[in-house]
Amino acid sequence: MNVTYDPKADAVYIYFSDKKSTNTVEVRDDLLLDYAGSEMVGIEVLEVSKKVAKKDLSSFTLTIPTFVATS
Asked: Distance between CA 58 and CA 60 in Å, rounded?
């Protein structure tokens, strides 16, 4: 797993796999789930500075709502 922060976009991306995303599901305005087929390969969290203090970006907890992908 790899986590990156883009300060210009104010977004955190959590990579679970090196696979390229084939489908993105918007769970909320600020939460996107990326899939390669039926496998979740990443999560993008937008407007992170509104949720986590910048000093805490090196270590934070994120709660993801349960979601079932449909094709």
From this structure: 7
36-46 confidence digits (pLDDT tens): 999 999 999 99
Structure tokens at 59: 């270590």
Residue listed under structure tokens 């990156």: 4
3-state secondary structure of 52: coil
Do the beta carbons of residue 40 and residue 34 sit within 8 Å? yes
pTM of the model as a whole: 0.71
CA-to-CA dists, residue 29 to 19, 53, 56, 60, 71, angstroms:
24, 20, 22, 20, 21
Rounded (5°) CA angle 69-27-37: 30
